Amino acid sequence: MSTVLTINALHAKIDDAGTDKPILKGVDLVVPPGEVHAIMGPNGSGKSTLSYVLSGRADYEVTGGTVAFGEQDLLAMEPEERAAAGLFLAFQAPIELPGVNNANFLRTAVNAVRRARGEPELDAVAFLKLARAECKRLGIPDAMLKRAVNVGFSGGEKKRNEVLQMSLLRPRFAILDETDSGLDIDALRIVAEGVNALRAPDFSALIITHHQRLLDYIVPDHVHVMSAGRIIRSGGPELARQLEAEGYANLIAEAA
């Protein structure tokens, strides 16, 4: 079976105040095209670190293992090359960019990816038509396009803006790093609808979450439990419901 993401024995660390701190300690994961996988686990298990390493964050160092993105060596690619190849990361806490117009920011990102794919760039008129259509489809006020990126946005608005960006970029593989954190039910539904609208044979996603509730809206093909820097259990959607009911303690004890 072909895969969009293949992680083999991945080890990584962060330089924390000059002290090497290993976090990922042998992660193995395979995600085929068209599948949505979820990773759950307690705080400090390495979930967000995995998303940072996959997206190419500079302060994380891979110390072992491999990551293939289709036929490409993901770890050999710069962050912008990963984005151009179709990797997207929705941040747990999207940053604010004062003075940067949201529509201009989104158009710049979309056109950068289109250039890398050999597609024609969109002029301002064509982009606004596309962006407004996506806003309408996602239930997002198009007035958001006129504001500075995430400045003065509520938590839910920031996550909606991430979903809008994802919808416009049309990635091959999306990583959602605790996108459900702090969301009310309406915002949660919009995030889920954005992901579900992209589900197709050429789209895959990795959803990192603490809670099962998001997985009521985005039903994953597989659920993985992460603890102490590695995946200790994998299963179907029922595993998420088991974790919600029983917690992590028993699984962690069995894997010790």
UniProtKB/TrEMBL annotation:
- What Gene Ontology molecular-function terms does this entry list? ATP binding; ATP hydrolysis activity
Which keywords fit this entry according to its UniProt record?
ATP-binding, Nucleotide-binding
Presence of keyword Nucleotide-binding: yes
Q: Which residues form a coiled coil?
A: none
Domain ABC transporter stretches: 5-253
Q: Which PROSITE patterns match?
A: ABC_TRANSPORTER_1, ABC_TRANSPORTER_2
Name the CDD domains on file: ABC_FeS_Assembly (cd03217)
Q: Which SUPFAM superfamilies match?
A: P-loop containing nucleoside triphosphate hydrolases
Q: Where are the transmembrane segments?
A: none
This protein's record includes keyword Nucleotide-binding: yes
Q: Which family does the record claim for this protein?
A: Belongs to the ABC transporter superfamily. Ycf16 family.
Recorded protein name is Fe-S cluster assembly ATPase SufC
